[in-house]
Write a structure and sequence with these properties.
Blueprint: H1 3-10, E1 15-20, H2 29-36, E2 46-49, E3 55-60, E4 66-71, H3 77-88, E5 91-97, H4 103-115, E6 120-124, H5 145-156, E7 174-179, H6 190-203, E8 207-210, H7 216-228, E9 235-236, E10 238-239, H8 247-255, H9 261-269, H10 273-293, E11 298-302, H11 307-317
Parallel strand pairs: 1-2, 1-11, 2-5, 5-6, 6-7, 7-8, 8-9, 10-11
Antiparallel strand pairs: 3-4
Amino acid sequence: MKVNEHIAQAKGQTLISFEVLPPLKGGGMKDIFNMLDPLMEFKPPFIDVTYHREEIVFNQRESGYYEKISIKKRPGTVGICASIMHKYKVDAVPHLICGGFNIQETEDALIDLAFLGINNVLALRGDARNFEDKFIPEKGGHKYAVDLVRQMANMNRGKYLDANLVNAEPTEFCIGVAGYPEKHFEAPNFDTDLKYLKEKIDAGADYIVTQMFYDNEKYFQFVDKCRAIGIEVPIIPGLKPITKKYQLNSIPRKFFVNLPEEFVSEMEKADTKEAIRELGIEWCIKQSKELKERGAPVLHYYTMGDTDTILRIVRAIS
């Protein structure tokens, strides 16, 4: 079933979903299953699986020179999605990015997903590689997420890259895209960022998942501004608890979000790891309860492998 169909069938009830990372290369599905098994008590209708672009590393050779090689540290997104669907009988949502693919490779990847019965995809531009200061698309690849959305929407209409195909089978992808309640860091201003988001919806996207945020008013204002410019698709809030003090600096730096002064002040007063963790959990519970009370369609938790924390939070609001 498609994400938007799950939301429609819920008839206003707030659903729970989770996002997981593929294990580091050398790990196995048991890592994913051990994390997801306890979370299945909440009956998530879908589970997202992230995709990670290749990284460039430098290995020193015996001669003393360094060799530049490209590696994927977290491969396996599609296989993990198929395994999750088989084991749990829930829908999986693979993330598909522009980086690392040309348009033909993108089409081939989408065909594979369709053959596997995976009909939900989150379309993202993706981040710059670790040695680049800005995103550089693959040669012959998409530069923006909206271009990826257009390609998927074309396939949903039976339009493939080969214009000579006759009676091509349309795909049935439900297309998700990212939204930023505090604006994407590369956008010159909030209104421009909303304009880009509207373009993705007009191109064929079916729902939005937001970047994490820690002030619910940012989400509510974001939804209101989206509605004001004609964006009517479901807008799913993304949530990630802060459980370590260093995250007060690392999360704003990496994800370009602001932390409320009240929250930061309480976290800075905490003098033990356990006190810090409890404050972070309580803040996320508070966020979750308010979002649920005010009709958020889904609460989407970025698990980052921390099952125990997510269990505490979701049990508190169930």
